[in-house]
Amino acid sequence: MPTSDGYILAIDQGTTGTTVLVFNHEGLVQCRAYSELTQHFPRPGWVEHDAQEIWSVGIGVVEAALRDGGLQPSEVTAIGITNQRETTVLWDRKTGEPVARAIVWQDRRTADTIEELKRRDLGDLFKDKTGLLLDPYFCGTKIKWYLDNLDGLRDRCERGEIAFGTIDSWLVWKLTGGAEHATDYSNASRTLLYNIHSLEWDAELLEILSVPEAILPRVAPSSGLVGETDPQAFFGRRVPIAGIAGDQQAALFGQACYGEGLAKNTYGTGSFVLMNTGAEAVRSEGGLLSTIAWRLGDEPVEYALEGSIFVTGAAVQWLRDGLGVISSAAETEGLARSVDSNGGVYFVPALAGLGAPHWDPHARGMICGLTGGSTRAHLVRATLESIAYQSVDVVRLMESEVGTPLRELRADGGATANAFLMQFQADILDAPVEVPAIPETTALGAAYLAGLATGFWESRDELDRRWKLGRRYEPAMTASDRDRLYSGWLSAVEQAKRSTRG
Fold first, then answer.
1. Within the chain, what is the greatest distance between any pair of CA atoms?
2. Rounded Cα–Cα distance for residues 447 and 257 (Å)
């Protein structure tokens, strides 16, 4: 029976940390907590997480959020989960122990495997079935790496002893005490193994990558009852887990982009532009991905067109942790404004290869245009500008493929707090950028999905009415300045791509 009593708890498990937000019926944040996650870089191009740390940090953050709000677990009506996508973990079904560290979506160790698949002319086959391009980004070749490099693992997989999952599956498994091995349609569509048209794990693709079907999770609706928490795992309570979506699809849902042609950009570790294409999976010819947006209960699957940018916020983090030129991300806005231009400095942040629309896993970062007059402020400004330039690369391609110019871009993620970046994004995009009043749209989307499934909210129309504008940035740059700056960016990208060819 529909009820608006209680609260919806959303677990937003991201690349650099876990956030838990608790929402009331008005869609407002009742309480929250956050904790960072250890990043492991064992070799150049390799990125790993400890799945057990993800679990322990996550449940600790849940406890901290409830404590922050003075809430009892009994007041939680349902749980929604959203997660860093494509990060791959395999674990022992009996012990619940991961077989190794999780391979993160940014990891490039399978680039050679991808090149071999391309040499076999398999790109179109995978694209036709999955909507994805062949790239180390996705789960399929990560699973193959595990199977090829860990002794005895393949035999254990074929005997059904091992489970595979993206991080949502791992959290569902842990929350339900091992009772449920499941994912949702949006996450399944990011594996390079799932046919987004027939809506099933594809036997031909599994055979090509030598992935045993026995390790795969069942695919559940993005909004629907997946299972209940094990009282030993969740503070003595059985609570329905009723919403799951990959972080970018969850943000699209939280931004109320329910109609065809509506688009958002999430500025996080990477940046991801998604446009709702409705019941049609649009095939991109220029480097975008066709992906499942969500499935609500028994309703038809809905699709999105996506441009995935690997390194945006991570570039700012690199300035802080790698170079030590800033002590916090909050400094970047003031530093960028302290100079009147980028001084001809461009930074192509290909720290994990280049994503859309270039898809060059071998590309490496490049800073060009330095002179004796260049300062750290110019480098910081160039880093922020690179986030906006990469987003324009994707939006321009998206516009050409759907045949319609973008009227506005809804923006979310941590970097929307940087007013310099948001204004520059509007300027270089030549379109308004809208930041919602509630910026935590990824967690909000997961909460909305769970709340719809449990009757906490009645319909998408109700959720659409709850979307409120926080700030709108109008383009103010002249066309000549825009063209000059963007031309310089495109030249820098070409230099970065040429440098990897020797």
1. 69
2. 15
One DSSP character per residue, 119-140 reads HTT-HHHHHHHHS--S-TTSHH
Helix (H) or strand (E) holding 14: none
pLDDT on residue 101: 97
The burial class, CB within 10 Å (0-12 / 13-18 / 19+), for 477 is middle
Q: Please report, for residues 40, 320, 349, the alpha-carbon distance to residue 317 in angstroms, rounded to integers and kept in the order given.
A: 14, 5, 11
* Whether 175 contacts 233, CB under 8 Å: yes
Q: Which amino acid is at 43?
A: R
Q: What are 36-72's pLDDT values in tens digits? A: 999 999 998 899 999 999 999 999 999 999 999 999 9
Q: Residue 363: helix, strand or coil by DSSP?
A: coil
E strand or H helix at 111, and its extent?
helix 111-119
> Does residue 120 come out as left (phi exceeding 0), alpha (psi in the -120 to 50 range) or beta?
alpha
What CA–CA distance (Å, rounded) separates 309 from 269? 9
Closest CA to 441 of 474, 473, 468: 468
| Assigned token pair, 469 | 């504008």
List of the chain residues with pLDDT < 70? 1-4, 499-502
Strand partners, 179: none
Q: What is the pLDDT of residue 500?
A: 59
At residue 407, the pLDDT reads 86
Question: Which pLDDT value is given to residue 272?
Answer: 87
For residue 478, count CB atoms less than 10 angstroms from its CB and return exposed for 0-12, middle for 13-18, buried for 19 or more. exposed
Strand pairing category for 240-246 and 76-83: parallel
* Whether the Cβ atoms of residue 192 and residue 185 lie closer than 8 Å to each other: no
pLDDT at position 2 is 44
The predicted pLDDT at position 351 comes to 86
Number of neighbours of residue 244 by Cβ within 10 angstroms: 34
Looking at residue 447, its amino acid is: A
| pLDDT for res 21 | 96
Residues 6+ apart with CB under 8 A from 53: 37, 38
- The reported pLDDT for the residue numbered 67 is 93
At residue 501, the pLDDT reads 54
CA distance 291 to 188: 10
- The pLDDT of residue 499: 67
